[in-house]
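Recap slide: DoxX family protein, sequence and predicted structure.
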Amino acid sequence: MIDRFFNNSDLGKLFLRLPVGGLMLFHGVNKLQHGYVFVEKMLIKSGLPGYLSHGILAGELLAPILILLGMYVRVAAILEATVMVMAIYLVHRGELMSLGEHGAYALELQAFYLFGSLAILFLGAGRYSVQKGRKW
């Protein structure tokens, strides 16, 4: 009985989706409220088109909502992972091999979102989702 309870990959997928989608959503709402023009400036400074900054809306608002609901999670996970790769490239590339003030990896939050999104990409939403059983 207890083995059956703890051997529930669908519940594990839900427990992965909730923080990866839910916590990222705070970042997106903050950028929606306070703007994200600074992202456009960083993109231009890096030689990339500034209009890519609108990807923030897809990667930090739409994707987390879809991940939370369990809808199109693989597409949403790719969007969120892409935003994290861009964030690391634009803002944090100088910290890739650094430790933080308390000895932890300097990019642990970014790594959590990136690898959490990749895990969701490969695992899917699971049974506890709006889109039960669909591949994408």
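The mean pLDDT is 93.
The longest helix spans residues 9-34.
(End of recap.)
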